[in-house]
Specification:
The structure is a homodimer.
Chain A: H1 4-11, H2 15-23, H3 30-43, H4 49-56, E1 61-68, H5 72-91, E2 95-103, H6 107-116, E3 122-126, H7 133-141, E4 145-148, E5 158-161, H8 163-176, E6 182-186, H9 192-207, E7 217-219, H10 224-235, E8 243-246, H11 249-261, E9 271-274, E10 293-295, H12 298-314, E11 322-325, E12 328-330
Parallel strand pairs in A: 1-2, 1-3, 3-4, 4-5, 5-11, 6-7, 6-8, 8-9
Antiparallel strand pairs in A: 10-12
Helix pairs in contact in A: 1-2, 1-3, 2-3, 5-12, 6-7, 8-9, 10-11
Chain A binds a DNA duplex through helix 2 and helix 4.
DNA sequence: CTGAAAGCGCTTACAG
DNA sequence: CTGAAAGCGCTTACAG
């Protein structure tokens, strides 16, 4: 490995001066700087990141730790997140590192261990639960981090969307179209976003003076098979819904599959709306008929999320900085008046 | 952060001795060791990985660098690889780090930069091309690495399957069943594995004294949409194939979709065999009728691959250690005599 | 069984 | 504008 000492020896200057020349410090002679830089490239010098980190106490590495999952579709979703996030973080000149734990591993401990072993400047957390132990742990350690989504029980930096509005907007649209028997395939209500969406749906119902049937709201993991089987079950009920709201496009895909297998027409026989995160593998344009619903591309979340985290690490931003992103609504062709 | 110095001060011993006690060295007094260990846990001491790496020249980190891809299905596949690999590497007490470059980034340069910046003990490479520049680069740097698959043009450590046999076995089975018009949806023949498979198919044809129609072998990215559209095209030809060999289960899924949309029955109207990597998202059991073909679970590849790489890094194994894994064949119910 | 010392490669006050 | 020195936290010969 080529070190500063090697360059120092070659050009006959002190290591100190070589370091400063390469670091672009102002108080270095023009000629000296040039000579040093030429030699550095000639020898193929790369600063040793380990040594630099030890000295500066900063590694430039942002980590995300996830537990392995047995659900391939959840993994596919996760990977889209990783790709998007990673691209943004690289663009800021930082390194993004994904740590996949064993399936079902205790990632709280992993976060703590990794942080206390040095070498990680900060973390990105996704899918927070209420009273999320990872958040509590990182707060206790004083580690810089930012959450996609939020845990209302703790104060921390986050980037999120208005999930109350997600539920309210879609329910409101369907109620306006005259639907009353509206099923809601919600995400797991162990997570805050799903609770908010349920509250939003309830608010829309209340505004229209309608009492929702609690049996029509389902709290389930948001995958295609879950969308399919639960829709089939709903359609088999004594009083099947005339419209379905799906928590994401994977669930919606399952809903479409169910209607198709029953020979039903969307939207004539069943109206469908879904929230769209902009996942490529389940793009709303790939639905026939085009899927309507609320839209908030995850891609935009990563941009602000990484920029905010960088600021927090540098100590130039409130460690509890919060941000709620915009939401849009597309009608699509998947919902019609009853 | 808690350091050795803190413990040293608390217990009134030198940093040297504290380090040795914690390191589990033999020549430390029982009582001393106990006292030090108790204090370490009391203070919540974690050895600083950065400092340790700088000293030992080893980080315990294995990296895989991939370019971002625009193809969500390719990403889903990749992520299954990452999950499996990561689990194995963690199990060996090493850290696995995934580095996702920008879409289309020059990962050769990324490999070199990351290695020369220190902090990476070795690399895992997947999807080698002939004369793969990443391999050439890592060989030049003397970096430990292992490849899943192989580049016959360079000597390096790898774990691979016998792709000649993959092609030969499936073609042979179909030829035995009496098929002559056999289409082959092969992977991109810019990669060695696909060339080998083509050679294997050709060998089976030769053995049966049959001359294959070159127009029936397609070199395409192995995704579901590609499987579907290319099958439709083949079925529309003047002389449609009676059997199709697919390079993986994603392609096979597309083939099934195409037959279904044409109202054809598998295997009565079209026999299908595919190579199965054991991907969860496209499991062969989830096919109806059950898909037949060669099988080699990627999972087993990761076990030996990580163990081999660990050995190579430790200098206890030939850096050019190669290994060819077993292949099995399942008949399934997707192919029948013509 | 224990400790003082050197050193991994870097950066950064400090003194000139 | 330049260099000697200290130090980030650790490990490991070396001497006792």
């Amino acid at each position: 490995m080529v070190t500063l000492k090697d360059i120092s020896r070659e050009v006959g200057l002190s290591v100190t001066q070589v370091s400063r020349a390469l670091g672009g410090h102002a108080d270095v002679n023009r000629d000296t700087r040039d000579k040093v830089q030429r030699m550095a490239t000639r020898l193929g010098y790369r600063p040793n990141a380990i040594a630099r980190s030890l000295k500066t106490g900063r590694s430039g590495i942002i980590a995300m730790i996830v537990a392995g999952s047995r659900d391939p579709q959840a993994n596919a979703h996760l990977f889209e997140i990783v790709m998007g996030l990673s691209a943004e973080i690289s663009a800021l000149g930082l390194q993004f590192v994904l740590h996949v734990g064993q399936t079902g591993a205790d990632t709280t401990q992993l976060h703590a261990d990794l942080y206390r072993s040095g070498g990680i400047d900060g973390f990105v957390l996704i899918g927070p639960a209420p009273d999320d132990p990872r958040i509590a742990c990182l707060l206790r350690l004083g580690a810089p981090f930012i959450v996609h989504g939020r845990d209302p029980a703790q104060s921390h930096a986050f980037v999120d969307i208005d999930n109350f509005a997600v539920g309210e907007t879609m329910a409101d649209h369907l109620l306006h179209l005259g639907h009353r028997d509206i099923a809601f395939l919600n995400g797991p209500e162990s997570e805050f976003f799903a609770l908010e969406r349920r509250r939003g749906v309830a608010a829309a119902f209340a505004k229209h003076g309608v009492t929702p049937d609690p049996a029509l709201t389902l709290s389930i993991p948001m995958t295609e098979p879950n969308g399919r089987t639960n829709t089939l079950r709903l359609l088999d009920a004594a009083r099947p819904p005339t419209a379905i709201i799906a928590g994401n496009t994977m669930l919606a895909r399952g809903v479409y599959q169910a209607t198709e297998s029953r020979g039903l027409n969307v939207p004539r026989d069943l109206s469908i709306l879904a929230h769209d995160d902009g996942l490529e593998l389940f793009a709303s344009e790939s639905f026939d008929p085009p899927l309507g619903g609320t839209v908030a591309h995850l891609t935009t979340a990563w941009v602000t999320l990484s920029a905010d985290l960088k600021q927090i690490i540098a100590g130039q931003d409130d460690p509890f900085h919060t941000r709620v992103l915009d939401l849009t609504f597309t009608k699509g062709l998947s919902a019609c008046a009853i």
